[in-house]
Structure formats: structure tokens, C-alpha cells
Design brief:
77% of the residues lie in helices and 0% in strands. By secondary structure, the chain is an all-alpha fold.
């Protein structure tokens, strides 16, 4: 069984690298025409964007854990998002999420399933916020009906799940000692994380989500301007919004390769050049990984006594 798990890990990583290299090859023409001065300027701005995005995510995680009555210390607030991104590129299928679960459970003793509910509430809240923002800004973009329906689905997602978590019938199901009973108990614990958030939490975390989406959009627009890709701010914003759903469906570590190809498809569907979308995605992911390597490794080293690598790859999986 362990051999199969190892093979799955390596296959996922290999697939991600192949897809990423394929994406890079697809935009090799644009890469060959890069101006050194513009490239250095864009790289410095990219590192700055990535750094501040990670810091904001650290604050978001700190507030999330504080809501669960656990205080994330300053060192972990700064380094944890970098470590999650770094190891998310080595651990297949939601690697950053499982790194987060392992670390928080081992160091702070938080229940995995209770934390899972809170973590996914945060994700779906961001999904809803992006959907609402997309609907509000439709006047700036000639959107097809499919996009409008998609945005409406995004906007409603967290509220639908919040309503499901409040269904009394499911709460009253008795969980027995069998595997089915244990599964029901774990689902009930995870859903409890949804129902405990109040209106003030929605407002606070929605504000952070708006800031993250805005910064990601401005970053993509800056890349477009720097390299004359011809994509306006509205186009970058809608691509950023639509790509959020891909963060939930991860096939390769860090969605390496898949993110680039998906970005190209989204930009193409919006009427822009697919190669421009791939170029922006390659530049952003490379910048974020570049920042994650030193700080993520430092954070991992400082907390090396908190958990074992075996637990990271095996015991956190629900």
C-alpha cells in the first residue's frame, strides 16, 4: 500500500512538471522576446506582490484560528502561508491544505475535522465574494449567459453550505461505532465549523477576500502592461475570479501545469490570447514559489520538531 502511495505521489509530481514545461514551451516565443530591464522590474514587483499576498493570508489564518479559540504566534503567522505554498508543490492533491492540517494539529492540538469545516468555510466564502464582485462588475464586461450563471452559482455557494450545516435532521443522526457512524460523526464535526460563524465573521473575512482578489488582479494587470499582452484590468479580474474554482480541484502538486493550462483556457474563453493567460500564470506561480522557497524552508526548519513527515503524508488524510 505504501508503495502505491509513493508511486501516486511521484506520478502526480511528474505530471505537473510535464504540464508546466508544456505551458512554458507554449509561451516560449513571448519569453524569448523579454526585455531584461522590464523583466527585472516585473520580477521585483512580482516578488513584492507575492510577499504581501502571503502576509495577508497569514493574517487570515490567524483570525480563523482565533475564531476557533487558538492563537497563532507571530512567527507562524508570517511563515505558515509560505510553507503551505512550498510543500503544496511536493504533496499531491491539496498538499498545502494537508500541510496546514498536520502542522496545526501537531503544534496546537486542533481537531482536524473541526478545522476542516472552518477552512472550507473560508474557501467557499472567498468563492461567494468573487462571484458577487463579478456580478456587480458585469457592466464593465460583455459576459455570456453561461458566465453569469457560473458567477451566480459562485455567489451562492457559501450560503447554501451554511444552510445545509444548519439542517437539524442531520445533526440528530446518531453516530454508532461502525465505520459509517464514525464517518457521520466526522462530517457532523466538520459541518459544525460552518454553523459557528456569525455575521461579523462574514464581513471580516469577506473584506480580506476582496483585498486578495484585488491584489491578484492588479498583479496580473501589471504583468500585462509590463509585457504588452493587451489584457485590460476587467479581463484579468474575471480570469482571477473564474480561476478560484480551480483551487479546490487540484490534480498535481500546487496545481502545477494545470493552473497554467486552465488560465489559458479561461482567457481564451473571455476573448483574449490563450498564450497571454498562460504567460501571466507562469510568471505569478514562479514568483510565488521563488518567495516561498527561502521563507517556507525557514518556517519548516523552525517547526521541524512539531510533526513527522510520515504524519504529513499519511495521517492527516481524512
Amino acid at each position: 500500500m505504501k508503495i502505491l502511495v509513493i508511486i501516486k505521489h511521484w506520478f502526480s509530481l511528474f505530471l505537473g512538471l510535464i504540464l508546466f514545461l508544456g505551458a512554458v514551451y507554449f509561451v516560449s516565443g513571448e519569453l524569448e522576446q523579454l526585455n531584461i530591464q522590464n523583466s527585472i522590474h516585473a520580477a521585483c514587483l512580482g516578488v513584492s506582490y507575492a510577499f504581501f499576498l502571503f502576509l495577508i493570508q497569514g493574517l487570515e489564518l490567524k483570525l480563523l484560528l482565533k475564531r476557533r479559540n487558538f492563537l497563532l504566534d507571530t512567527k507562524d503567522t508570517v511563515t505558515l502561508p509560505f510553507s503551505m505554498n512550498l510543500w503544496g508543490h511536493f504533496i499531491p492533491v491539496q498538499g498545502g491544505f494537508f500541510y496546514f492540517l498536520t502542522f496545526i494539529k501537531s503544534k496546537y492540538g486542533v481537531s482536524i475535522f473541526s478545522l476542516t469545516g472552518a477552512y472550507f468555510w473560508l474557501f467557499f466564502l472567498g468563492l461567494s465574494v468573487d462571484g458577487i464582485m463579478g456580478l456587480m462588475l458585469l457592466v464593465q464586461f460583455q459576459a455570456p449567459y453561461v458566465l453569469i450563471l457560473f458567477l451566480m452559482g459562485m455567489a451562492c455557494s457559501v450560503f447554501v453550505l451554511h444552510a445545509l450545516a444548519g439542517i437539524q435532521h442531520f445533526k440528530d443522526i446518531e453516530a454508532g461505532p461502525s465505520w459509517k457512524g464514525k464517518l457521520i460523526q466526522r462530517i457532523q464535526t466538520a459541518l459544525e465549523g460552518f454553523s459557528q460563524f456569525k455575521a461579523v465573521d462574514y464581513l471580516r473575512f469577506a473584506g480580506i477576500s476582496v483585498l486578495l482578489t484585488a491584489l491578484n488582479s492588479l498583479w496580473g494587470w501589471q504583468i500585462s502592461k509590463e509585457f504588452d499582452l493587451g489584457i485590460d484590468l476587467a479581463g484579468v479580474f474575471y480570469a482571477t475570479v473564474l480561476m478560484r474554482i480551480g483551487l479546490l480541484l487540484k490534480i498535481t502538486p500546487g496545481n502545477l501545469g494545470v493552473l497554467q493550462l486552465g488560465s489559458g483556457a479561461v482567457f481564451s474563453a473571455l476573448g483574449y490570447s490563450a498564450s497571454a493567460g498562460i504567460f501571466i500564470s507562469v510568471w505569478q506561480q514562479a514568483s510565488m514559489l521563488l518567495v516561498s522557497i527561502p521563507i517556507g524552508l525557514a518556517g519548516t526548519w523552525l517547526n521541524r520538531h512539531q510533526f513527522s513527515w510520515k504524519s504529513l503524508f499519511y495521517t492527516t488524510r481524512p
